[in-house]
């Protein structure tokens, strides 16, 4: 089924493909300067404060003020345990090298995320470990003009595991349930969800870039109830970081995990095998799908929910195929 | 005809403060405090009747005094003073509530019932939503301890509300009540010099100040003000959330992170020698945390707490004195460091 969708791109008349490529190049040229122009005036002001445009003394003073606030407990967290200061100053700085240097992620269409008010970003999920979610968070945080903070919805397994649950809560993640999602959306936050869940992240390498079933589509009714737009997001590159060639199901069951990945390097090389492959990533945000025109009772209409879910899913799948056609190689 | 209010749990600090507060209320004619032991504090001129709510005598008290408002505050996690263990507490909580509700059902004068419940009724589990509303069903029912008592009590109260629809029933689910004279297991835990915590978990906690607790009980036990409704179930908590790591830093008490099984074992050991009532429920709360939604409290009940969670904790910290690592000292050290560095 999914293969059938790939074929049209290959069979397109050459002239049209060329025209489209030219158009795309034009688009790229038009888009590319935008983030640069945006980031120039902002960088010294707010973001990456410690790294650019400040003397060593100022940096030390800033670091000490931060340390002082941390050790005396003088900071705020929200109801979900989100620690904005820690996320901005520490967690994002730890993730940024992976995002910029290791995966060399390229972001497209970040302007599709509204500058204010709630929005639900729906993305594909892949890569055995949920690095795609974290990179998505860095992408939104670093590239959006309004510096929006992405609040991810995570699987319950995340909140069972020690240390990980603590970090996830502090980074602003919360449990993927309708109550939490709706509360965040109503507060006007940008919420990220990966409706494929474990089916997407733990799928074999052979099935890469084939979207799995989108749960029960609960995310659509939540967005509809909160009246926020749905922003489809396609992430290319995450599928190849840990090529999962096998799944040790018995071991997974013993450990209480949804799957136990076997990759060409893991677990054979031990911890070294857990190093992700340095693939080149592209994160594309699509046109927002408005949910405003629907009456309040529409959230209880299963047919409409299925249709909207399919629409979002198709958009992401098509964008994935488009990005794959454009991609020169997995690693460059 | 003025009101006659019966308050259970009068020998507790909070009960005593509540009685003294409503004694000053001009609409209330008579306040009757009830408890199994005489209170050590004064009750501001209110009557005290020594009656054990676990005994049927409570029905006679209700019938003879013509009580119209019952404020049930004798629902507690810890025994009063040193006597009695967990068994006695559980009996007072559950059997006491059953007897009291039975007595209320037989008393035609009773028009209003206020229950001091607890947010522990929601339990604490990693699979729960981050914020509990009054209608959230708990994912895992509390298996024992105070939380299970509260679940059972609320069950009996719902049964009573069905049988006596003419009585306005108000269930107040309090987050952790803290204040200068709070006597809860959590306050005991906070006064330990070094806090054993669960490694890899940082629970979110909410607090209510004692003054706010008394004020909201007063609102619930009086006639509803215009535009508000004071029967039903309400979560009561101060604004904002504090993490356990954050409050340990603010109070200057170091933490000792332990593996979860070790904490459970240590809790059992401490309980056995009677140092602290560190029940499994308490450990779950200090592992996964609990946050409740308070929109209903604001909009329906019309109560706006005076203290936020942070202010409540600051008040409490002031009453407890500094810990081993006072935050002021640490701040001074950092300031000194800041003074030395640029000079270099």
CATH architecture of the domain at 81-241 and 276-326 in chain A: 3-Layer(aba) Sandwich
CATH class of the domain at 3-181 and 207-237 and 293-306 in chain B: Alpha Beta
What proportion of the residues of chain A form beta strands (DSSP E)? 5-15%
Rg of chain A is 21 Å
Residues in helix, % of chain A? 40-55%
Overall pLDDT of chain A: 84
Q: In sequence order, what are the helices and strands of chain B, one letter per element?
A: EHEEHEHEHEEHEEEHEEHEHHHHH
Class of the domain at 81-241 and 276-326 in chain A in CATH? Alpha Beta
Mind describing the biggest β-sheet of chain A?
7 strands, mixed
CATH topology assignment of the domain at 81-241 and 276-326 in chain A? Glycerol-3-phosphate (1)-acyltransferase
Poorly predicted runs of chain A are 1-51
Shape of chain B: globular
CATH architecture of the domain at 3-181 and 207-237 and 293-306 in chain B: 3-Layer(aba) Sandwich
Question: Helix count of chain A?
Answer: 13
Q: What class, by secondary structure content of chain B? A: alpha/beta
Global geometry of chain A? globular
CATH topology of the domain at 3-181 and 207-237 and 293-306 in chain B: Rossmann fold
Radius of gyration of chain B: 21 Å
Give the SSE string of chain A: HHHHHEEHEHHEHEHHEEHEEH
Query: What's the quaternary structure here?
Result: heterodimer
Read across the widest sheet of chain B, the strand sequence of neighbours is 3-2-1-4-5-6-11
Pfam family, one (chain A): Acyltransferase
Keywords (chain A): Acyltransferase, Transferase
Region (Disordered) (chain A): 1-55
Protein name (chain A): Glycerol acyltransferase
């Amino acid at each position: 089924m999914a293969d059938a969708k790939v074929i049209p791109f290959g069979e397109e008349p050459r002239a049209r493909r060329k025209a489209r490529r030219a158009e795309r190049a034009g688009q790229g040229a038009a888009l590319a300067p935008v983030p640069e122009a945006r980031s120039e005036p902002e960088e010294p002001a707010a973001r990456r404060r410690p790294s650019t445009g400040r003397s060593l003394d100022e940096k030390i003073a800033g670091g000490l003020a931060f340390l002082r606030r941390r050790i005396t407990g003088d900071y705020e967290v929200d109801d979900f345990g989100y620690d904005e200061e820690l996320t901005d100053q520490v967690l994002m700085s730890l993730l940024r090298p992976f995002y910029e240097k290791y995966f060399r992620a390229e972001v497209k269409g970040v302007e599709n995320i509204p500058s204010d008010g709630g929005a639900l970003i729906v993305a594909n999920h892949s890569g055995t470990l949920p690095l795609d979610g974290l990179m998505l968070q860095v992408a939104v945080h670093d590239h959006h003009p309004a510096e929006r903070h992405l609040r991810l919805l995570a699987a319950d397994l995340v909140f069972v595991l020690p240390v990980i649950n603590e970090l996830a809560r502090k980074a602003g993640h919360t449990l993927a349930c309708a109550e939490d999602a709706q509360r965040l959306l109503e507060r006007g936050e940008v919420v990220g969800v990966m409706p494929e869940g474990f089916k997407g992240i733990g799928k074999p390498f052979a099935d890469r870039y084939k979207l799995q079933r989108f749960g029960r589509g609960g995310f659509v009714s939540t967005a509809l109830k909160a009246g926020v737009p749905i922003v489809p997001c396609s992430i290319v590159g995450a599928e190849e970081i840990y090529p999962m060639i096998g799944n040790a199901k018995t071991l997974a069951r013993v450990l209480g995990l949804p799957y136990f990945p076997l990759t060409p390097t893991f677990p054979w090389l031990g911890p070294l095998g857990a190093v992700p492959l340095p693939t080149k990533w592209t994160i594309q945000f699509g046109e927002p799908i408005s949910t405003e025109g629907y009456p309040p009772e529409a959230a209880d209409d299963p047919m409409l929910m299925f249709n909207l879910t399919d629409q979002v899913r198709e958009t992401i799948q098509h964008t994935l195929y488009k990005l794959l056609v454009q991609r020169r190689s997995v690693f460059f | 005809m003025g009101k006659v209010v019966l308050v259970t749990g009068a020998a507790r600090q909070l009960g005593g403060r509540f009685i003294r507060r409503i004694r000053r209320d001009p609409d209330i004619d008579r306040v009757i405090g009830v408890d199994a032991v005489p209170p050590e504090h004064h009750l501001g001129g209110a009557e005290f009747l020594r009656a054990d709510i676990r005994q049927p005598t409570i029905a006679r008290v209700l019938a003879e005094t013509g009580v119209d408002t019952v404020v049930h505050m004798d629902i507690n996690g810890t025994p009063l003073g040193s006597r009695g263990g967990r068994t006695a507490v559980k009996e007072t909580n559950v059997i006491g509530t059953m007897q009291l509700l039975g007595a209320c059902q037989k008393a035609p004068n009773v028009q209003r019932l206020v229950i001091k419940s607890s947010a522990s009724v929601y339990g604490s589990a990693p699979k729960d939503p981050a914020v509990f509303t009054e209608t959230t069903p708990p994912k895992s029912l509390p298996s024992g301890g105070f939380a299970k008592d509260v679940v059972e009590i609320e069950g009996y109260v719902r049964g009573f509300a069905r049988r006596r629809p003419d009585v306005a029933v108000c269930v107040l689910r309090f987050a952790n009540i803290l204040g200068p004279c709070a006597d809860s297991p959590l306050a005991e835990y906070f006064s330990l010099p070094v806090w054993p915590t669960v490694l890899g978990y940082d629970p979110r906690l909410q607090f209510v100040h004692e003054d706010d607790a008394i004020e909201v009980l007063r609102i619930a036990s009086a006639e509803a003000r215009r535009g508000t409704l004071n029967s039903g179930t309400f979560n009561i908590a101060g604004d904002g959330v504090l993490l356990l790591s954050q409050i340990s830093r603010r109070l200057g008490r170091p933490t000792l992170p332990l593996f979860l099984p070790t904490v459970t074992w240590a809790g059992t050991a401490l309980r056995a020698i009677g140092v602290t009532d560190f029940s499994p429920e308490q450990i779950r709360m200090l592992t996964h945390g609990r946050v409740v939604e308070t929109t209903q409290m604001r909009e329906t009940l019309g109560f706006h707490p005076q203290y936020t969670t942070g202010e409540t904790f600051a008040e409490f910290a002031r009453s407890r004195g500094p810990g081993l690592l006072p935050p002021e000292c640490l701040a001074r050290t950092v300031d000194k460091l800041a003074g030395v560095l640029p000079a270099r």
